Amino acid sequence: MVSEVELFAAVDALLEEGEPGLPPLGERARLREAAGVSQAGLARVMRSTTQTVKNWENGRSEPRGPRLSAYRRLLQGWAAKYPAPALGGPGGAAVVPPEGMPAVPGMQTLTGPAGSVNEQAPQRKTGPMSTSARPPATPVVTDPRFKNGPLAVLDGDGAAYGSGGVVLDCPATTIQALLEWAVAESGLGAPRLHRYGHDTDPLMVLTASAAVNLGLPEHLERHGKRPRRLPGDHPVVQELAKSGWHLTRRGFGPWTKVYRTAAGGRQGVRIAVLPWNAFDERSWPGAPGMDPAGMARTLGVYAQRVITPRGSPALAGLELMTALRPPIRPVRDEGTGNWVSAPHPGSLGTEPMDPPPPEAGPEHPVVVASGWTAGFLEEEPLRWVRDTDLLTDEERRCPYALGLTVNTAFCAAADRLIVGLSEPVHVTKPPFDPKMPGSWLVDLSHVEGDPRLPSPFTPTGRRPRAPAWYETHTVAYAQELGYDVQPVQAFVREERGPYLQPWHDRLQTAYLDTLADLGVTRDLSDAEFLAAMDRAQVPSDPALAAVLTAIEATVEGGIGKLRERPHPKHYQEGERWPALERPTWRPDIRAAVVSRARITMHRRLMAMATMTGRYPLAVWSDCVVYPSPGPSPMEILPYSASGKPQPAGFRLGPAPGRAKPKGAQPMPWALDLMEQGHNPARRIEDGAPLHD
């Protein structure tokens, strides 16, 4: 009798003949996005790689064998749960779902470039824009409602440059007219990143001439102690109020959100004013000086890969978390049959959550009101310099001080990171649980380490002198090193989950794709990687270089925003500051990321010492400086006899968590700074004088 295994093999063979029976390419991506799953997340489930999933979705390859059956089964299940809305009526508008039930955007693949304009849309024909030498890493899929992309840059002559190379005619001569055009005619905006989220408002970026033509001043003056914004009696502000448009509490400044309630629901537009320094040169190098077409391309790539800009990259990083993990979801009430809002599992909810005193910080109202004096959680990146008395003569004779930096260290630390999601619970003398997110009062002053290495338990790298509050990862590392851990008390969160995983996946993919567009790919040898990084220092495509820096700023700034401190000029003791009203004001999550990044750095420092006998001169956050016989990292990193990089220590490569060269300076330069008490890791890149 034939066996089941033989039958299944025959069926699989039959299925693989001819048409594989998978949905069209655009539908595959739509179904995955409708389910709120990233390409990296799907790759983990399919026991494959992110690039392979991309290839399945853009038609470069097809799954085979067991993966074909599993992929088909998954897509069929998603198709049953998230059917594509029928498109009909004028302009192909999507069918409106039941009230309170968010729509799953109907996605279709366009035959033209991203954001191409149809025959009915006002347009200007332009020549092809400069493109990357590498084709886009992902297929260009757009929502028919937002056919012209997420944003436009106005040049002041009536042209609006879109992110896909299109140029639209914008007849607006006032801000009010611009808003009407943006919501009714432009075809601008972006679909939600998660099926329970919200679509993104169109972004209008104004050049200096466009701002003046629309009635705005070319330069924005500061009014008293308030942040830079238009005064309430400015004609533009008054006209907006008369016409039914509303400003947020931030008013009309470099970044502005304007909204109104219309018959079809809320309508909103975001405005960024270039001459008012809406884009910081440090986060967007070269972008503010680009022409409108170049600026539109730069922002469009960032919007496609990360999120439509809506302020600083730090703010974008924070809002990306919520966009990928919306706080609520629609559910059907069994009693009434109506759609109602319910908490979305794995998110942070809709209401702010006050932290316990040790996580709050001394200026927080919780601390001021309670009179808390039992210390605070101080999880910060390492900033340490080795005592020069501990340097050997051999180290002093090295001609170079060589800097290595970890790629997007906070992004790497967020991967598979379990954080607390519920209210903190106070416990006394608890047994330590390394899987429980929380803050622990522990005495680690008995831990003795190698003086040539920083202590992993303090930001200064100095040995603890008394009991202190530590995040779970820090205490777990002490236990891992074999030391006794006996918490006195703790604040723990029993509900937990990988809240930052979608955020990590999207930013990691954006970072790797942008580096690959610049010629730095994951398949390079170490020597090829270093050569590619050298070429990337003078990029052939400034737009992509600006996007890469903005992605890095999004990672670091987004984590920093989780514990945004009050502005010193506006803070009144005991009063709440605006950031405290966000559900994403979560210093405990920031502490978990920072602690994990610092512990990972220390593990690599120890591995380097064990495998190579080399000890660092200094550490500044994600940068470490070593004595080196030459300017290349390959002269100090550990390799096997066959030439392969050794695991555990620092390894070169573009992926988050891998290392890249930061710079090399003469050893006397580093020694001079160290003897003055300064940290050479801060300026190893350019060798400029340093004054801490």
Overview of this protein structure:
With 692 residues, the protein is an alpha+beta fold. It has 20 helices and 24 strands. Helices cover 32% and strands 14% of the residues. The protein has a seven-stranded mixed beta sheet with strand order 7-6-5-8-11-10-9, with helices on both faces. A hairpin with a 2-residue loop joins β10 and β11. The longest helix has 26 residues, at 587-612. It is globular and about 75 Å long. The model is unreliable at 7-20 and 86-141 (pLDDT under 50).
Please specify the SSE layout and strand pairing.
Layout: H1 4-16, H2 25-34, H3 39-45, H4 50-58, H5 65-81, E1 87-88, E2 93-94, E3 108-109, E4 141-142, E5 151-154, E6 159-162, E7 167-169, H6 175-184, E8 203-206, H7 208-213, H8 235-242, E9 246-247, E10 255-262, E11 265-273, H9 292-305, H10 313-324, E12 328-332, E13 339-343, H11 357-360, H12 365-370, E14 383-385, H13 393-397, E15 400-406, H14 409-414, E16 419-420, E17 425-428, E18 438-442, E19 468-471, H15 472-480, E20 489-492, E21 496-497, H16 501-517, H17 526-536, H18 542-561, H19 587-612, E22 618-620, E23 623-628, E24 659-666, H20 667-675
